[in-house]
Design goal:
By secondary structure, this protein is α/β, with parallel strands linked by helices. About 35% of the residues lie in helices and about 20% in strands.
Length: about 280
C-alpha cells in the first residue's frame, strides 16, 4: 500500500452535511466511489490509493451512514431520489461535469439509477460491483433483518470479530485492514456500548421504496461504458441475472472475482487493476 492518504472533507448538498474522502489531485479526472448499504466511503481506501495517480477519487458517506447527516424522517429520505439530489449538488459544487462511477452493492444499484436517468450524460464510466437491476425478495428480507437491528458490543475488538463474520464473503482482507474497517464502522452509544455506524432506519428503503431495487428500465437506458463485477460465490447477483445483464442495456464488460462472494472488496491487485484499466479506457 502506498502513502496516498485521503483528505476528509465536508460539504452541504441539498440541505444535508455530507462527509467525503478525497484522494488524488483536483486537476485529475474524477471518479466517485459509492459504498454499500450499511458501509462508509473509507471502504474504497485501497482502490482509491491505486487510482489516485490517474484520478481524483471522491468517496462520500451516504446520509444515515458514517459522518454524514442522519435523517429525522427515514421513511421519506432514505431512497435514491433523495440521494440523487445530493449527488447532483455535490458534483455541481465541486465543479465535476463528467466523471466515472464505482459502486459496490447499493452503490452499484444507485449508479445504475443515476446513469439511466438524471446523470445519464455525465457518467462516462460505470463500474457495478456485484449487484443487478433487481433484488429477489428473500435477499431484501435478509438485509432488513440484519441491518435493521444492529447488535451492541462493549469493545471495538468484539465489533471486529462480528464484522469479520458478517463480511467474510468480501474475500481477502489483511489484519490491519480489518482494524481500520472496524474503526470506521463504529459509533459509541449513550450507554457506552459500541455499535455499527449507521442509522438502522436505512432499511426503510427496502420496505417503502421497493422500486429502487427494480430498475431494469434504468439499466437499459445506460449509455456509459460499463463494467460488471461479480463475486464468484455471490448470493446477491446470480449467474442467471449476470447473463441477462451482459446481453442487454449497456452490454458491459465482465470480470468474475475469484475467491469471494458479495461483494468483492476491491482491495487486491486482480480487482484494483481491472477497475483501473477499465476507467482509463
Amino acid at each position: 500500500m502506498n502513502d496516498r492518504s485521503p483528505i476528509s472533507k465536508y460539504v452541504e448538498c441539498a440541505g444535508w452535511e455530507i462527509h467525503y474522502l478525497e484522494w488524488g489531485e483536483a486537476s485529475l479526472p474524477t471518479v466517485i466511489a459509492w459504498h454499500g448499504l450499511a458501509r462508509v466511503g473509507y471502504d474504497f481506501d485501497v482502490l482509491a490509493r491505486r487510482l489516485s495517480t490517474h484520478f481524483r477519487v471522491i468517496a462520500p458517506d451516504t446520509i444515515g451512514r458514517g459522518l454524514s447527516s442522519w435523517s429525522a424522517n427515514g421513511d421519506t429520505d432514505y431512497c435514491f431520489d433523495v440521494y440523487g439530489k445530493i449527488v447532483t449538488d455535490l458534483c455541481n459544487k465541486l465543479g465535476i461535469s463528467e466523471f466515472g462511477w464505482v459502486g459496490t452493492s447499493m452503490g452499484g444499484a444507485f449508479g445504475i439509477w443515476l446513469a439511466g436517468s438524471i446523470l445519464r450524460n455525465r457518467i462516462s464510466h460505470l463500474v457495478i460491483n456485484d449487484i443487478g437491476p433487481e433484488l429477489p425478495q428473500e435477499a431484501m428480507d435478509r438485509i432488513v433483518k440484519y441491518v435493521g437491528a444492529p447488535p451492541e458490543f462493549t469493545t471495538i475488538t468484539e465489533l471486529e470479530r462480528y464484522l469479520r463474520v458478517i463480511y467474510a464473503p468480501f474475500g481477502y482482507i489483511p489484519g490491519d485492514e480489518w482494524r481500520k474497517f472496524s474503526e470506521n464502522s463504529a459509533r459509541r452509544l449513550p450507554n457506552g456500548n459500541i455499535t455499527t455506524h449507521y442509522d438502522p432506519n436505512i432499511v426503510r428503503q427496502f420496505t417503502l421504496h421497493k422500486n429502487d431495487w427494480l430498475i431494469w428500465d434504468y439499466y437499459d437506458s445506460i449509455i456509459s461504458n460499463t463494467l460488471l463485477l461479480r463475486g464468484e460465490y455471490s448470493d446477491l447477483l446470480s449467474p442467471e441475472m449476470t447473463e441477462d445483464m451482459l446481453q442487454r442495456g449497456p452490454k458491459p464488460e465482465f470480470v468474475e472475482c475469484k475467491g469471494c462472494g458479495h461483494a468483492p472488496a476491491l482491495n487486491v491487485p486482480v480487482q484494483t487493476e481491472a477497475v483501473l484499466e477499465f476507467l482509463r479506457k
